[in-house]
Amino acid sequence: MNTPLPAKPVLKQKLWIWLLWLAGFYAVWLFLVAGLGYWSTAVAHWPMAVAMAIGSYAAGSTPMGGGTVGFPVLVLLFELPASLGRDFSFAIQSVGMTSAAIFILARRQPLAWATLKGAMLGALLGTPLGIFFIAPFIPELWIKLLFAVVWASFGLLHLFRLNEIAGHSGITDFDEHWDFKLGLWIGALAGATVAAVTGVGIDMVLYTALVLLCRADLKIAIPTSVVIMAFTSVLGVLVKTVSGQGLAPGVFENWLAAAPVVAIGAPLGVFIVAKIGRKPTLLVVATLCVGQFIWTLYSEQQRLGMIGMLLALLAVTGCLAGFELLRRWGATLVGEKTAKAEAKAQAKALAEQG
Question: Mind telling me which residue stretches traverse the membrane in this protein (predicted)?
Fold first, then answer.
């Protein structure tokens, strides 16, 4: 059974918190470009600022972080190393997704709190483990392919199931402890694998579980995915910085150009999508996800060969099969929940009659 969304927010919005964050960020950025003389560096990397103007809107309005645009732009368009795309995704989302998350929290938008808390704890454990023990051993080509496969699968899911996903209302009210454990496993596994390797993805995995398994409304699932990606991105940057790994060369220069754009662009996406609806944006982004997969296979066809390309297609098929299993499991759980609720209601009615 689904718990409906409240008609109006009960708590007063506190947008001054977001405005305070915004003022603090731009003060730091101005100090870097004006006080430390990085203005010419920021101007020289203006193409990334333009790309992230689109990426930041997608970050705030869809369950995909800004790195979803930043990664393919750096790796496919500019032909830079995939490890740079990963580190840039962490760095730029630490600003854009954090800004969007603060905006969401300040507006008191509904979130799947039990699942989110579990996912944050899981990411806190899984992301550092993935950064230290998994990501360093993944070849550049595999990083690129992992990104391509995961996002192509996600795009195809929405191209085929968007009407169903967009039709959900509220969220299936399972046991809070169960929701927390679900988030914990998602955070740990997705943080250690997808996020640690590509710099993005934990938001998409959590969102997929919410909409397919919990039948969550997009107004709940997407903001929840934004918050977990913001948390994981900041964590990723901190782990890499404190551990001495550092970020890949070129990340800071591109970040300097794009950061002031995403700081306002991602929250703007949150606001605009509330006015125009999420389906048009999701359709466009889903199409781009499939397009980057085709682009990746085309650009890497010599290194992959026919067998590698077939394996990549098989991986996408496997992800889609997993999504379908998750969807069916969600339907079963919803049916069980509804049956229990009806039985409980009947028992209560009989007791009252007795």
Answer: 15-39, 51-76, 88-106, 118-138, 145-162, 182-213, 220-243, 255-274, 281-298, 304-323
Name, in order, each residue with C-beta under 8 angstroms of 16's C-beta and a sequence gap of 6 or more: 106
Task: Check if the beta carbon of residue 287 is closer than 8 Å to that of residue 64.
Answer: no
DSSP 8-state secondary structure symbol assigned to residue 135: G
Other Cβ atoms within 10 Å of 177 Cβ, number: 10
Selection from 255, 127, 288, 250 nearest residue 199 by Cα: 127
DSSP 140-176: HHHHHHHHHHHHHHHHHHHHHHHHHHHT--SEE---H
Task: Tell me how far apart the alpha carbons of residues 170 and 160 are, in angstroms, rounded to a whole number.
Answer: 22
Mean pLDDT of the chain, nearest integer: 88
Reduce the DSSP state of residue 13 to 3 states and report it. Answer: coil
Give the span between the Cα atoms of 118 and 179, in whole angstroms: 8
| pTM beyond 0.85, yes or no | yes
Query: Please, are residues 196 and 236 in contact by the beta-carbon 8 Å criterion?
Result: yes
